[in-house]
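Appendix C: a fully annotated inverse folding record. The material below is reproduced so that readers can follow the format used throughout the book. The structure is listed first as tokens, followed by the designed sequence.
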């Protein structure tokens, strides 16, 4: 009796329970001539016949289950299974889907429910179906989409895309919602497919609209002031937009309707406008930063300082090398000029100068020059105001960028005549000797050995440096530089006679070699042997009638108290090569003092002051005159 009541309760629950997820239908089970016909209810269930089930249970199973439950106060009979249950068939689109199992679930000895199992792959779960027997059929049934194998995956895509869209993370939203760009029937049957499609269209439109606004905002900022950070911001925006453009291609290709075409055209136009703006901004910024070289004057200290430092950086050379196309300015060389670097920092020009070096290095790679033709012309127009032969220096290295070595050497030789800075003269000759080494086929072994010696010398290891120089000298035979470096080192080591022998050998090998003469003149004047220094400078001038040697001769003549000769050298030789030179005017003033010409001294000192009014030497000289 207790079992009967429990069974009746179970049947009533199964009969009247209304599920939100599944669907059910009624089917005539048996018709009776006497008594009431028997009907059953068929509903979607799990393998145990439960109607309220979690989708996870079905997703993990290879089968779909349908439960048969009596309607009314009766139960299944074992003897009726074959006659009344087995004939029940599942029909879809005219096809019969066979069940793979029939499971009788009993309570005690009573069959409470029957569960039929079907292979998922045999049933199109997105389409309607029905059950039938020889007595009739159910209404059309559907499996609620929550139980479809693809539901969890695509519903997650939908939810994630919707959440990302709400936070305006359009690209992230598209990464999930683009899974709906398919004509797969099972996906298109999902109830939220059309909404997902609308979200795709919305996010693409919103992304383009917001990007257009961002582009306008950055463009307006650039119109207010050109700034590399703003250009970089525009460049980063362009990179992100290009990625988005590629990401949205599947949407444009899949939809291919008028609305998507309009969106695609808007995006293409935005990318085009953005790239054009970047090019225009880069060009304008480059022109703005490099304009100093095209429009500046030596009267402007910043122009003079930048030109001088740039020339020193491109001239800087520590080792012999194969002269070939000049590829870039090494920005780390700035560390070799601490006073210049400090001045850049004090004047707050460091960032600007480093940016200029970057732009020039880009021009070397893309345009084939260090300074533009317009900048070169600007230097040419101001040659008479140069302190160093900047026009020739940049003409030389512009030629070397394109590996025009003949033009490079031509301007090097022109520069020799008017260089006033000993370090720059030394470096220029270093380049020239490197060129001659290539031209005269000096072996790589000699160059490597010689450079090893220079390396040891820079490290203070004179002994190993000299060993390398001697090896290089023996390997090369008549290559002058190893002899010069040996002479220099032996002089530093206090072995003057040995040093002189090597200097003489280097000059006998290459009479135009200036480096040995520069050092010999310096050594002799510092030791007070002015007559020997004068002989040496006269010997140098016989081979190299350059400003620097004329000026050194004038200095030596002053030390020998031959003031008028010194003055004549300055006026007739130095001034004809370089008219405006601070040290020349100072020396002329000193000579005038020695010649008892105080007014003449004042005139020359003032000319020096015109060139550099804050120079302490000028200030001190004028104070001396007032005493």
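Designed amino acids, in order:
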């Amino acid at each position: 009796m207790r079992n009967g009541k429990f069974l009746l309760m179970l049947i009533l629950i199964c009969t009247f329970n209304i599920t939100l997820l599944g669907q059910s239908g009624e089917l005539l089970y048996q018709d009776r001539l006497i008594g009431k016909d028997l009907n059953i209810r068929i509903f979607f269930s799990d393998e145990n016949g439960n109607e309220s089930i979690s989708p996870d249970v079905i997703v993990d199973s290879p089968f779909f289950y349908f439960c048969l439950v009596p309607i009314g106060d009766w139960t299944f009979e074992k003897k009726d299974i074959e006659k009344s249950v087995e004939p029940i068939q599942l029909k879809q689109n005219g096809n019969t889907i066979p069940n793979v199992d029939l499971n009788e679930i009993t309570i005690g000895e009573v069959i409470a429910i029957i569960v039929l199992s079907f292979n998922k792959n045999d049933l199109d779960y997105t389409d309607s179906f029905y059950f039938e027997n020889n007595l009739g059929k159910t209404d059309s049934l559907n499996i609620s989409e929550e139980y479809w194998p693809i539901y969890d995956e695509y519903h997650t895509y939908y939810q994630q895309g919707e959440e990302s869209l709400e936070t305006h993370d359009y690209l992230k939203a598209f990464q999930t919602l683009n899974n709906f760009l398919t004509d797969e029937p099972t996906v298109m049957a999902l109830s939220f497919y059309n909404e997902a499609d609308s979200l795709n269209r919305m996010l693409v439109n919103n992304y383009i609209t917001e990007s257009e606004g961002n582009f306008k905002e950055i463009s307006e900022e650039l119109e207010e002031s050109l700034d590399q950070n703003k250009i970089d911001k525009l460049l980063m925006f362009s990179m992100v937009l290009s990625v988005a453009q590629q990401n949205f291609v599947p949407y444009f290709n899949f939809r291919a309707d008028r609305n998507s075409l309009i969106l695609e055209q808007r995006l293409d136009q935005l990318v085009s406008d953005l790239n054009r703006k970047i090019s225009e901004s880069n060009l304008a910024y480059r022109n703005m930063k490099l304009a100093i070289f095209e429009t500046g004057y030596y009267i402007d200290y910043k122009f003079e300082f930048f030109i001088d430092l740039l020339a020193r950086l491109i001239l800087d050379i520590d080792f012999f090398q194969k002269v070939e196309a000049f590829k870039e300015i090494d920005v780390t060389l700035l560390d070799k000029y601490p006073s210049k670097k400090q001045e850049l920092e004090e004047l707050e020009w460091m960032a600007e100068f480093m940016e200029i070096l970057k732009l020039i290095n880009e021009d070397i790679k893309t345009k084939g020059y260090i300074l533009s033709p317009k900048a070169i012309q600007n230097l040419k127009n101001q040659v008479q105001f140069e302190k160093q032969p900047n026009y020739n220096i940049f003409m030389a290295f512009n030629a070397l960028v394109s590996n025009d070595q003949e033009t490079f050497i031509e301007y090097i030789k022109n520069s020799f005549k008017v260089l006033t800075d000993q370090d720059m003269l030394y470096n220029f000759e270093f380049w020239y000797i490197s060129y001659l080494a290539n031209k005269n086929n000096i072996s790589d072994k000699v160059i490597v050995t010689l450079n090893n010696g220079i390396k040891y010398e820079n490290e203070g290891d004179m002994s190993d440096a000299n060993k390398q120089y001697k090896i290089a000298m023996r390997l090369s035979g008549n290559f002058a530089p190893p002899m010069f470096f040996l002479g220099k080192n032996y002089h530093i080591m206090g072995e003057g006679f040995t040093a002189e022998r090597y200097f003489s050998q280097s000059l006998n090998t290459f009479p135009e070699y200036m480096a040995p003469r520069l050092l010999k003149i310096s050594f002799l004047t510092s030791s007070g042997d002015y007559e020997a220094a004068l002989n040496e400078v006269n010997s140098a001038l016989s081979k190299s009638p350059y400003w620097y040697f004329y000026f050194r001769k004038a200095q030596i003549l002053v030390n020998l108290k031959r003031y008028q000769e010194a003055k004549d050298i300055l006026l007739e030789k130095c001034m004809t090569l370089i008219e405006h030179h601070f040290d020349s005017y100072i020396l002329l003033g000193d000579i005038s003092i020695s010649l008892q010409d105080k007014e003449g001294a004042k005139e020359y000192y003032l000319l020096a002051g015109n060139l550099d009014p804050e120079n302490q030497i000028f200030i001190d000289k004028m104070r001396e005159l007032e005493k």
